[in-house]
Amino acid sequence: PAPRTALVTGAAGGVGTLMRDRLPGYGYELRLCDVKPVPDAPDAVTADLADPAAVREAVRGVDAILHLGGISLESDFDSVLRSNFQGTYNIYEAARREGVRRIVFASSNHAIGFTPTPASGSAALPADTRHRPDTFYGLSKCFGEDLAQLYWDKHGIETVSVRIGSCFPEPSTVRMLSLWLSPDDGARLFHAALTAPDVGHTVVYGSSANTRLWWDLTTARSLGYEPRDDSEPWAAKLVAEEGELDPANPDHAHMGGPWVSNPPRWPT
Ligand code: NAI
Ligand code: 15L
Prior knowledge:
NAD(P)-dependent oxidoreductase, globular, NAD, Epimerase_deHydtase
């Protein structure tokens, strides 16, 4: 049966906030969870992903998990180890012990950030593109994808790993014109990932139907995802401000953009 209750980790964050407004419209009852208080959510669970007992308690009784929580920028290795490696392991172990059969894992374009940037609009990058993380953060997403594969092969827990491009209300850079996942398409994709049958462990890219798309949405579409949005209406303004991407610039030559040389850092 399709999941009805879903735990959303990282619910106080940007994507969590966008999704808590949208996923109930698809019929889900959400249990929100974060280490920080979730605004206007008195029933939200406060739990540190690094605390196995708290995570197990948060997971108990839900049908599925949308795992958005963790450090979402670059940080020192020990911090990424705690929140992302240990935190994601705690989610999978709690799911196994509590009998939760479906997880949607927020992976990232930074799992493959050192991959050369494809031609704009070529939709060239397949979902089996090999891991080339650009940061410890990206490495934690490679780990999460591999952990998902292990828990499918060994324990029959299904995962869709969504390599999210840039999920924000609007694209704000020329790079994001290729990577943008509109909030509405994000909800469409997460809903498809939560409900599609027999996903095993499937890796998909998370983008809208952008004119300047870099990657292949075939595996995402195989779940029933049909993106409706396109970043192109923002292109004229952003290109006027920044110019087009220049392949001779190392920060433009890789999928991960400026993250390959100077990643934005998680506040410490
Ligand atoms: P965000 O930084 O706004 O939200 C992450 C949330 O996780 C925060 O509310 C934070 O308090 C929580 N968190 C961090 N460490 C935690 C811990 N130890 N225990 C419990 N909660 C903890 O990030 P955003 O943008 O909402 O991203 C959501 C997820 O999607 C993240 O996993 C991120 O890596 C991934 N992602 C997001 C992209 C985007 O465009 N927004 C692109 C690619 C991946
Ligand atoms: C990510 O993985 C980050 O979590 C998000 O904040 C954005 O920076 C995004 O990648 C991006 O590459 O735009």
